Amino acid sequence: MPTATATAAAAAAAGAPLHVGSLPGSSSSPRANRHRHRRQLRPAQRSAAAAPTRREVSLLLSSSAAFGSFALSFFVPAPPSKSAPPEVSELPSSGGVRVLDLRIGSGEAPSVGDEVAIHYYGRLAAKQGWRFDSTYDHKDSTGDSVPFVFKLGSENVISGIQAAVRSMKVGGIRRVVIPPSQGYQSTSQEPIPPNFFDRQRLFTTIFNPTRLANGEGSTLGTLIFDIELVNLRHQ
């Protein structure tokens, strides 16, 4: 009998899109429109990272992923174009981290030791692309989205995210596929979902002893992150 992961991979390979939350401003409901400004980057960050274009949002929301054979495929429902399609590439010396650039940033590139701020959507391949966290849902007292801030090179952050961010520029948006070896190695590594039930579901899947004993470790911890490099500060 096919496993749930194999079923998810087969569905994705057939072109079934992963269901992920919309980027800020993509909802058309009245309530969402009233609060749209709250989902934008802070004023100090807007110049460094402009809002994604319609095509970029389409790429982000419509692409599908299959793993395990976990080969990555992307479906873009856009009119035919003479421009070359976006390419998936493996980052050198990253342990198998694969990326698809949705927008190339025009700002600075970070260096190890810099403090970087990113927005992200985090999803788990073993749960059919279940979204376990999003910084756009993390709000401050004024209702603005709060980015995830960390020091590049810190051992507290999963290495797959660091490898992806290290080769980005401010303003860039990148889809990142992180193999288990470069993902969560413990429940204390960041980013950690703030919701208790999301944390439980995430970690009980990745570190499930029965499934690991059955040889499923190569698929349980595969992560998909959509990352925007918002800002950086040299240290």
Automatic annotation (TrEMBL):
Keyword Isomerase on entry? yes
User: According to the UniProt record, where is the region Disordered?
Assistant: 1-53
Record EC number: 5.2.1.8
Give all residue intervals belonging to the PPIase FKBP-type domain: 113-233
Q: Which GO terms describe its molecular function?
A: peptidyl-prolyl cis-trans isomerase activity
What single Pfam family name could you report for this chain, choosing any that match?
FKBP_C
Start-end of Basic residues biased regions: 32-41
* Keyword terms of this UniProt record: Isomerase, Rotamase
Q: Which reaction does it catalyse?
A: [protein]-peptidylproline (omega=180) = [protein]-peptidylproline (omega=0)
Give the PROSITE patterns listed for this entry: FKBP_PPIASE
From start to end residue, where is composition biased (Low complexity)?
A: 1-16
Q: What class of enzyme is it?
A: isomerase
State the protein's name: peptidylprolyl isomerase
